[in-house]
Structure formats: C-alpha cells, structure tokens
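#dry-run=false #mode=assembly
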Amino acid sequence: MATITIDGVRHVANLARLEFNDEETAHFTEQLARILDYIGNLNELETDDVPPTSHIHPHQIFILGSEEGARHVAKPDAVKPSYPIEAVLANAPEPEEGYFGVPRVVDTDS
Amino acid sequence: MSVYELTAHALHEKLKEREITAQELTEAIYERIAEVEPHVKGYLTLTKDIALEQAARADEGFQNGDEMPPLAGIPIAIKDVICTKGVRTTCGSKILENFVPPYNATVMTKLHEQGVVMVGKTNMDEFAMGSSTENSAYQITHNPWDLDTIPGGSSGGSAAVVSADTAVCSLGSDTGGSIRQPAALCGVVGMKPTYGRVSRYGLVAFASSLDQIGPFTKDVTDCALLLNAICGSDAMDATSVDVPVPDFTQNLINDVDGLKIGVPKEYFTPALDTEIADNVHAAIAVLQGLGATVEEVSLPHTEYAIATYYIIAPAEASANLARYDGVRYGYRNENPEDLISMYKETRSKGFGEEVKRRIMLGTFALSAGYQDAYYKKAQKVRTLIKSDFDAAFEKVDVIATPTSPTPAFKIGERTADPLQMYLSDVMTTPASHAGLPGLSVPCGFVKSGLPIGLQLLGAPFAEKNVLRVAYTFEQNTEYHRQKPEIQTNGVG
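#status=ok
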C-alpha cells in the first residue's frame, strides 16, 4: 500500500472540500501516513477469492426484485405530505423566498 | 436509597403503587443534576420544562389507574446524535450548534409512546468519532468513578449520566464500540443490538453499515425493557430488518445451565491489562460455576479488525458528512468569495480535528487509484472477520471477552496520538463488522477502583442468549450495585 505525501494530502483535502494551512497539512500528512502504515497490515491477508461485505444482512435487497430469499424493502410509491417549507428552512443559514440561498454561481454579465 | 439511584423497573413499581409521582422523581433527578453535573459534565442540553410536562402527563395516567407502559414517567437521557423534534441536536459539533430537528428519530417516537421523561441531551465525541468523549466541541465529560479520567466514548455522556445517577437510563449509539466501551469504563450496562434491530431513522449518520442505537442502564432488566421499547423494523429505515421482536424480558433467566460460552484466545494478548485479564477470567469462571460450558474458540482475524474499521468507518463518514456544507442547515462561514470557498471555509471552521482526520482518511480510501487497495480490501477482510464469528457460533451460544483492554485512562493521555486512541476499540470493533449484538456488564474493579466490563456477544438476532448470560452473571454478583462516590469538592 502507498503512503501519503504533502501533495496527496492537498489533493484529498480539495476532494473533501476542506482547506488547511501549511502547518496543518504537514501535521495531517504525518498522522495519516502513520495510520496508513498501520492499516497496511491488511496486506498480510490473501483476499483474491474473498467476496466483499458491504452489508451484513445480504438477504436484505434494496432494489425491486424477486431473488430467492430477498426481502423487498422498497416503499410503495405513494404520495404523502412532506414537511412544510418553513419547517425545512428553519435551520437554513440564509433562506430566501422559500429557497436555500447560496453565493451566486451564474455570471450575470453574460 | 435515594429515588434517583433506583432502576426503571423498581421505579415503575413505586409509580404504579403511587409511592412516588413522576414529577417528584423528575425533580429529584434535577436536584441530583444540580449537585453533581457541574463535576461530571455529561449533558449538553437540559430539557427540564419538557421533562416536567411529560412527568405530569405520566402522573395523570398513573392517577387514573391506566395500564402504564414500563418506561412511563422514567427519566431518560438521549445522546445528542439522535434527533429530538424542537430540541437542539448538536452531535457534539460546532457545525450543528444551532440545529433544531423538525422531526423525531423513530426511537424517540417509540419512547414517547411509552411516556418517558426526557431529561436532556448528552455529550459525545463529535459525530460519534472517538473513544473518550474528548472530541466534543463543547466540553469534556468526567468519569464519575474518577473525575480525572475519561468516561469512554463516543457515548461518554450517556454512560456517565447513568453512572452518576443523573438519569435512570439513556440511549447511545455504537459504531465500533461507542456504547459497550463507555458502559464498561463507567460501570453500567450498555448494549448494542444486532445491526438492523433498531431503526436508524433520525440517528445522525456516521458509518451507515455499522451504526446502531442502544441502551445504557443500571441493570440487565432495564436493558431488556429499553430494547422492548426501541426495537422493530421501520419503513423509514430500509436497513432495519423485519424480524419478530420478542419480549426480551422473557430472557431474564437466572440460569446458564447447558449454555456454551466461547472464550476467544485472540482477545487475551500480552497488550491486555493483566488486572482486566484476571478479572474477566474470574467472571467467566463464575458463569462456569453456574452451569455454563466454557470452551476456547478462535477468531483468527481479530487483529485486523481495527485496520478494517479505520478504513470502512471513515470511508462511509466521508460520504455521510458531505452534507455539512453550509447550505441547508448548520453553520455557514460568512462572506464567502464563491460557492466552493463557502463549502471549504464552512467545513474547515465547523468541524473539529478528529472529524477532519476521518474525512481525510475516508476520502483517501475512496479516491481514484486507492479504492481497491483500501476500501475494497477492507470490505473483504470484513467478510473474513464475519466468517470467524459464523464459525464460532456453530459451536457456542455466547462469546465472552473483556469490553476494553484498559480501564478508564486519564483525560488528555491519548489525545496527542490518534492511533493509540483508535486501539482503544480493539475489543469492540470485530463484533461491529459482523453486526452482532453485544453487551457490556460490570464484572469488577481494578485496584485503583475503576470499573471493568465483561463483553458478551451473540449471533445475529440472538440477543436472548446475551441477555440470559448477562442476567445470570448480574444476579449472582454485586458489581452492578456499586456506586461511584463523586468528589464534588475536589477537581473537575
């Protein structure tokens, strides 16, 4: 397994929509490298023929289907009332005319 | 014995017999809070007005001679990661400092149907990421047994308030041990039910394939009563499993004759505190003396559970926490230059260091070029860990281990070294990967006086065996009756 460099940390921070100053970047690089080094012990295991587990109840199928033993967990497609707009916007930092306000993303000059 | 020290089942009898009212009980709990909470600091929010209203309603029912549910009028605390309609829910994070949920989590709806009294919301590691509750953005919770030590985490507040008698019982959440480990360190009973037993609707998501809500109580009987109240499939959570919910109090059987208890040799490593090892062996011998058959089992992939956990949980967290971007709720950094800056500044200022570390770790493990080497690899090892347990449960009914490799450690002792902190979860994460039910029951004390927990694990949906063994142990020992003497004039 690879280790992580300062540039790698900058790249991952951008993907995660986080930003760090140089000191924090160096700090995270050192800590993440140590954690990844520890995690590297998984490489001792031969897993080519092992199926991955993403969910511990494999009989619980989340799509419409009729596989044997599968349980259909999709909800009926029925119209139900949703929360009132005021309740949903009550926690919004900048509600605006019934919407969530954000900084402008379209250029008005063109 | 003061009323605030009693169990829910003992209080139910007193409420039913009108020896005490729910309002008197609630007042007694808040008096206790006034006395010890400044030292323990288990609560982030107290909801006394709501509690007194709920208590009055319960009293009406008892007065009318109605058939009242077992938890009616019982003061309960709720981990601040569970959505409570109209009551601020912070997840221990600055990013949700002013978040007031417009709805109740399914477990809250179920508890309100029982007529509980909500005392308040409890402190936790930010977004449930931590093993000591030191990652809370608000305060450090102190272990009632020794105020210089941590209560465990991430549900440290929920464990501490039950131990300190500032709530009769509480709810927490367990992703890699966050109920079992603090229960052990605070000397109370804590249980993570089988993954899928309890609806996660309204539980703020950390790692969705692992998260599960469960109770902290003063004894195993109360644990069964709370499980009865919160378990069951829910249309609002597609991962809740539609299996019948038994009456868990039927499993409170003071007899382990014929039950097989497996002791996994991989849990008793040289790194395990010797006092804890000796104590847990002695606890297992007690069960053997009561008729259980004890045999050694092997869970060969135990040593890989932490590495697997610290890939899977952060990966899922990095996706779940993408929603905190300053748009729909929570903190937003002011005057951003553009939308992307708003996201970055909001998240960088709103999240604490451990949360950022896990988001970074998870984002890395899922990023192009690394996903197969890390995330997929971890999912495969998760299969191996689960297979170990499947094989063991072919032979035994319950697996017994220590809950934590050490007793409560000193505040500040492990904060500088994240990896050292992660290793606190070495005994609890394996069962989380396999989605197993796990319970920690008090089984003794180290010489310094700090409590020790015995972890009992069952096969999926076999809570009945876990409860039976825990109940038998408790009925034949006195550890769960011990109370901490909180040093109200000392440090803290």
